[in-house]
Amino acid sequence: MAVEKAETERIFLRGVGVFPFSDADRLIDYAQANKGILVAVNAEKIANASPQTKEIINSNIAYCDGAGAVMAARKKGARPTKIAGCELWLRIIERFHADKTFYIVGARPEVHRATIEKLTAQYPGIKIVGHRDGYLRTEAERTTLVDDVVAKRPDVVFVAMGSPVQEILMSEMLKRHKAVYQGLGGSFDVYTGKVKRAPKWWLDHNLEAAYRLLRQPKRIKRDIVYLRFIWWLMLNKF
């Protein structure tokens, strides 16, 4: 599938550069040709971006994962589609499980085990060359993990540890081994049924963040950034 030139030119949203891909397959095709880290960008990631995370995002392949990022990009004349990271990684596996190799990192030990079991059952023949949970307790464990990725040379690496920890780790890996990397946050919890994603109506109306807040009221301090983001949208501060 040809990727339009306009989709390969970054749109900067308060210093965070995103590619305005029109669908997931175009994003995947671009990533195959330009190895790097697929970074899901939403309102929270834009509002909380630090110089370090901006550098990582802007030197890799950021895409609009949230409705806020889509709306901000459209205010700048782009026409991106919202691409959910928790769906994108499975799209990648569906396309390439027969002929590419995978390395999978992240989540609590029990969720990680359930993820590997479900993947191997759902995609017979999938080549998972290495995996471990997301709890790197010492620098030695971190070094061992990076060394193993370099040794196994997977085509695709998924890291589900939350931002910005996962992006920093993937940047370290990328320096030593070129591959397609994707940060997944809590996607393994969703995949294994430990966490319920918002129903279709909420997704269709761009209210996924509101649904999460209703189910997890303790997120209020974290989600306050959405009010700031809405203010930026109203004033066109992008």
| Strand content bin | 15-25%
| Share of residues in helices | 40-55%
- Placed side by side, the strands forming the largest sheet appear as 4-3-8-7-5-6
Which structural category fits the helices and strands?
alpha/beta
Distance between the termini: 31 Å
Number of strands: 8
Written description of the protein model:
With 238 residues, this protein is α/β, with parallel strands linked by helices. The protein is 49% helix and 16% strand. It contains 13 helices and eight strands. The two termini are 31 Å apart.
Helices and strands in order, then pairings?
Elements (H helix, E strand, L loop, with lengths): L10 E3 L2 E3 L5 H10 L2 E6 L1 H5 L3 H8 L2 E4 L2 H9 L9 H12 L4 E6 L2 H14 L4 E6 L6 H14 L3 E5 L4 H12 L3 E4 L3 H5 L8 H5 L3 H8 L4 H4 L1 H11 L3
Parallel strand pairs: 3-4, 3-8, 5-6, 5-7, 7-8
Antiparallel strand pairs: 1-2
Helix pairs in contact: 7-8
